[in-house]
Each structure stands twice: as structure tokens, then as C-alpha cells.
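Lab notebook, design round three. We kept the backbone fixed and only want residue identities now. Task for the bench partner: fill in a sequence for the structure below.
Input C-alpha cells:
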């Protein structure tokens, strides 16, 4: 089946957009995992605020 130039350009644009969306979704998932790990790590290293307020 022969596609017109317009159909070909629409199909190419769709593929580019889908690839970009997939790539973005994978990056966001990776960043979310990194942020969760950083939050867990930071909880153990930060002093409790109540403890600091009791000393003053």
C-alpha cells in the first residue's frame, strides 16, 4: 500500500512523540526511585526538630 507524503509525515511524527513519551516516562520512574532513596537516607541523618527546640 502506498502512503501519501502527508500520511508518512504524520506517522513519523507519531513515532517520534511516542518514543519521547516512553523515554520521559522511564526517566521519571528512575528519578522517582532516586528521590525515594534520598528521602529515606536523609531521614536518618537529619536531627529531630523537637530535640533542638527542647534545648533552647
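Proposed sequence:
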Amino acid at each position: 500500500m502506498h502512503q501519501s507524503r502527508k500520511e508518512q509525515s504524520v506517522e513519523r511524527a507519531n513515532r517520534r512523540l511516542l518514543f519521547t513519551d516512553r523515554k520521559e516516562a522511564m526517566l521519571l520512574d528512575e528519578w522517582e526511585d532516586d528521590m525515594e532513596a534520598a528521602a529515606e537516607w536523609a531521614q536518618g541523618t537529619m536531627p529531630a526538630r523537637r530535640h533542638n527546640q527542647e534545648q533552647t
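Keep this in mind before ordering anything: The helical segments are 5-45, 49-55.
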